[in-house]
Amino acid sequence: MAATIRDVANASGVHVSTVSRTFSAPHLVNPATRNRVLAAAEDLGYRPNRVARALTTGRTNNLGLIVADIANPFFPPLIKSAQAHARERDYHVFVADTDEDHLVEEELIQTLAKQVDGVLLCSPRLGNRAIERLAADIPLVVVNRRVKGMSAVLMDVAHGARLAVEHLLALGHRRLALVTGPSGSWTSGEMRAAAAQRAKDAGIELVILGPNAPTERGGLAAAAQVRRSGATGVLAYNDMVAIGLIEGLSERGVSVPGDISVIGVDDIVPGRLNRPKLTTVAMPTSAAGRTAVDLLLQAVGAGEAATPALATLETSLVVRESTAPPPSGGRT
HSE of 200 in the Cβ direction (CA atoms, 13 Å)? Predict the structure, then answer.
């Protein structure tokens, strides 16, 4: 006969309710007790009935995860870590892609709200008011966006932008450009404010170019503007934009880093394989996925009594081949 929840309770020396809570809300169970229950369940071959549990607890043990563009290499490490972390807590994750469309994003949140216990919203394109309205119907945690009264995981891109500008300054660059991302992007706004302030403090000029699509094609399209700007050092919205920019500059006979230095943001695999290998601001995507799951499960467990939490994760500069001192005598 198949093992029952009562068998697991007897084997682990706890009440049936503790076994139930171990599988439905593991973060509420003492780690030592949780491990003992899970070990007993494994030994007995016990598997909880998810349908029955949902009827009893009112929870699905499913989470939604919505990203702006699943084809962007920035998102897979975040998705993978979130799924693995959720699975350790006996939750499944449904992943959805908005293709950078705020209307699709809103529709997906409304649809998933009927099927999951909470939603992770990564790099949202919706405005804050729309997100606040949707959060009234389903627990939401946002990644890389600050929304009043909501839990969020932020990657400190402002710090990263300052590091990038300081690196270019140390190399001797005195005219810089920032190739921004989509209008309304929190990340783009943070980068712009931080880079502009650091450039002002150093007494140099920063040219703002954008908005731009957050893709390789967006970087290609920005290459002509960068060439005309006279900048010798460029910070791009993300690595995909930087890779496209390098390609576009090359098509115009501009060498990277010989004529112009380029820095990206994210530290995705294609940037490490690009030629030249891309100097970039590394974003803690895997840590963000795990942290976002933790915050969402806290919100789900607390219900209406949930207290918003904010986690800010550190970024760092990775120097590779796409940055160098400016050409002597200025760029021709």
Answer: 6
- Unique residue bearing structure tokens 């995909």: 240
Distance (Å, rounded) from C-alpha 253 to C-alpha 283?
A: 31
Q: Any idea which fold 157-283 has? A: Rossmann fold (3.40.50)
Q: Identify the CATH number of the domain defined by range 62-155+284-314.
A: 3.40.50.2300
Q: Name the nearest CA neighbour of 277 among 260, 257, 255, 258.
A: 257
pLDDT by 10s per residue, the chain, length 332 = 678 889 999 999 999 889 888 877 777 899 999 999 999 998 998 877 665 555 455 578 899 999 999 999 999 999 999 999 999 888 999 999 999 999 999 999 999 998 999 999 999 999 999 999 999 889 999 999 999 889 999 999 999 999 999 999 999 999 999 999 998 899 999 999 999 999 999 999 999 999 999 999 999 999 999 999 999 999 999 999 999 999 999 999 999 999 999 999 999 999 999 999 999 999 999 999 999 999 999 999 877 778 999 999 999 999 999 999 999 754 43
The CA distance from 262 to 296, in Å, is 36
Sheet of 118-122, strand order: 92-97, 62-67, 118-122, 140-143, 151-155, 310-313
Out of 1.10.260.40, 3.40.47.40, 3.10.20.70, 1.20.1600.10, select the CATH number for domain 5-57: 1.10.260.40
pTM of the shown model: 0.82
CA neighbor of 178 nearest in space, from 260, 236, 227: 236
